[in-house]
TrEMBL record:
The keyword Cytoplasm applies. It is found in: Cytoplasm. This is Autophagy protein 5. The lineage of its organism: Eukaryota, Viridiplantae, Streptophyta, Embryophyta, Tracheophyta. The keyword Secreted does not apply. Residues 200-356 form the Autophagy protein ATG5 UblB domain. Pfam families: ATG5_HBR, ATG5_UblA, ATG5_UblB. Residues 9-102 form the Autophagy protein ATG5 UblA domain. Keywords: Autophagy, Cytoplasm, Isopeptide bond, Transport, Ubl conjugation. Residues 116-172 form the Autophagy protein ATG5 alpha-helical bundle region domain. InterPro entries: Atg5 (IPR007239), ATG5_HBR (IPR048940), Atg5_HR (IPR042526), ATG5_UblA (IPR048939), Atg5_UblA_dom_sf (IPR042527), ATG5_UblB (IPR048318). Conjugated with ATG12.
Length: 368
């Protein structure tokens, strides 16, 4: 059974008003825009079966190569619809006005999407990546039977949460809350808490920078290039520290430490607590270094579907401020327990997608 939060995520949808590109209209009068609901967890190419019949009578001759744009920005088809909306519409636009194109695919800007199978394998590959991050291997996904793989995809396509969770449970990716409880019980019988491995959470972070002279986010200029959106694909480690709740703020701090330089890092806070308990600082530093090296080694083996930046290249710490954090259309308080966020707001491929808007000083280096 899924949680109430998961149910809302699966049922979430963006009202879309889709216009056909003017250059592809061959009849008069021009067709009115199509009004449909785009599932937050879905992908734009999967809407083709609804959109194509609506516009088919007015299209020019040629082969369909479908793509979408928002205010002239070609939309990356492998980013979930809800994530695209959250990062590009800081002031939510309802309905969301998109333009659909059936010709002149911008191959220099977008990777090809030839069919539904392309989207399916992108989804499966993301699931493999998430499994590798969580378990250290993806053999359960690789060994999934064809019927289970088909049912997993069909349940995703049809928005059937229970069917999807039933198949997904066979992959033994676990729930972070349950995993944490198990690890705490195990750690109780171990000689040192350092032997307990932290939970590793698959996270994709999208960071958009806004210049400081914009006083209201609704006045922010539209994104005209993907160079203005930074992307971090990196696991977040939840350390087992009794008495301290690992929050959403802590998670973002591990990914964007330069924005929280005036606050102690998670490792520094852990070291302080351990020192109070009589632990040596050197042992703590070595333990943290080993964890960091292991995380880096694994991250290098993962295949990213977007151009990835390093945390330090996203934005300079000088006069930079987090103005907005949005997950599944929600702007949660940063003090909320991260385990709750992961359990309730992750996408079906087990990645947590976080959108962040950062206010930066004029003249400061922009995110690439």
């Amino acid at each position: 059974m899924g949680t109430e939060g998961q149910k809302y995520v699966w049922e979430g949808a963006i009202p879309l008003q889709i216009h056909l590109d003017e250059s592809e209209i061959t009849t008069l009068p021009a067709p009115p825009p199509a009004l449909i609901l785009g599932p937050r967890i879905g992908y734009l190419p999967l809407l083709l079966s609804l959109i194509k019949p609506y516009f088919s009578s007015t299209l020019p001759p040629g082969t369909d190569t479908v793509w979408f744009d928002y205010k002239g920005l070609p939309l990356k088809w492998y980013i979930p619809i809800g994530v695209l909306f959250d990062i590009l519409c800081l002031e939510p636009e309802r309905p969301w006005n998109l333009t659909v194109h059936f010709r002149t695919y911008p191959a220099d800007l977008l990777s090809p999407c030839e069919s539904e199978d392309t989207v399916k394998w992108n989804f499966i590959n993301s699931l493999k990546e998430a499994a590798y991050i969580i378990n250290g291997n993806c053999k359960n996904v690789m060994n999934m039977s064809q019927p289970d793989q088909l049912e997993l995809w069909r349940s995703f396509m049809n928005g059937h949460m229970e069917g999807n969770l039933r198949i997904s449970s066979k992959l033994k990716l676990g729930t972070v809350g349950e995993e944490s409880a198990t690890k705490k019980a195990t750690a109780h019988h171990q000689q040192s808490s350092s032997e307990t491995k932290p939970d590793r959470i698959p996270v994709r972070l999208y960071v958009r920078s806004i210049e400081e002279d914009v006083h209201d986010l609704e006045d922010a200029p539209p994104v005209d290039s993907w160079d203005k959106i930074s992307y971090i694909n990196r696991p977040v480690e939840i350390h087992m520290d009794d008495g301290k709740i690992f929050t959403l703020r802590d998670a973002i701090k591990t990914l964007l430490p330069e924005l929280f330089e005036d606050e102690p890092s998670i490792d520094e806070e852990m070291s302080r607590i351990e020192l109070q308990d009589g632990e040596k600082a050197l042992e703590t530093d070595l333990c943290d270094q080993d964890l960091e090296n292991a995380s880096t080694a694994r991250s290098r083996e993962l295949t990213d579907t977007l151009d990835e930046c390093t945390p330090s290249s996203c934005c300079s710490s000088e006069k930079a401020e987090v103005k907005l954090v949005r997950i599944q259309g929600i702007e949660p308080k940063l003090d909320i327990p991260f385990t709750w966020v992961v359990k309730n707001l992750s996408n079906p491929e087990h990645f947590l997608h976080i959108c962040v808007c950062v206010l930066v000083a004029q003249g400061q280096d922009k995110m690439r």
